[in-house]
Structure formats: structure tokens, C-alpha cells
What does this fold into?
Amino acid sequence: MSSEHYSKLERMYLQANINTQLYDTTTVKISEGLAQIELKISEKYFHALGAIHGSVYFKLLDDAAFFAVNSIVEDAFVLTTSFNINLIRPVHKGAITAIGKIKSKSRTLFVAESTLYNEEGKEVAFGTGNFAKSKIELSEKIGYK
It folds into this structure.
């Protein structure tokens, strides 16, 4: 795999509307079989009890696992076919970092896991997902540039 591929994936991720308009403090680093995504916590992500909502945990865990997989697929966009998460502890402040890694791969299925850490390095959530190669080409049309 090439560093150009990783850079294009990083730009594609950061330029997506959800990241420019809602998760605007997101950073990403992708390498072969690995993705790291960080988000600075804001009250806009809080539920009624003053901690980040589970949907934020899900997004970061899924994204990290997804990009770990797409890092080894250079010709097509991959798709999440299932993803399960486990929440361990709430987060109220600071930054959180999701690290995604590939667990296994076959011709048609990829399995990846990701772990979410608070800024003290404590695990706050983890997840595992299944991913499949789509028929959608990685191209400038979808922000892969």
C-alpha cells in the first residue's frame, strides 16, 4: 500500500459533510491496516446527563475500523455490514481517540476491531465490525483525491 492512498483516504474522511459540519475537530491518521481518529469533546455531543452520547462512540469506533480496512483496499470503497459496540465508561471532557485494526480478511469479508480511549489513555469503549468491498470505485467523485 502507498502513503498516497492513506493521504487520499484521510482527505476523503475529513472532507465529508458530517466531519466538516458536526465533528469539526476530528483528526485522522491512516496506515496499513490501522486507523487512528481523534475528536475533541464538545457539549454539542452530550446527552442529558452531561457526557457524550453513544452515537459519538459508535461513529468513531466504526470509522476507525472502517478505515483500517479501506487502508488495504485501494480500488473500492468498503461498506460496514455489521458493527457491535460495548460502552465501558462515560466521557465528559478532553479528547477521545479511536484506534482501528484489522482482525481477519478473506476474499469477500474483512473483520476489524477498534478501541476508544479517553485522553488519560483509559479504554472507554470497543467494537468489532464486518466489512465488505463495494462496487463503488475510490475516485475524486467521492472525495478520494
Residues 64 and 100 are 4 Å apart (CA to CA). The mean pLDDT is 97. The longest helix spans residues 54-70.
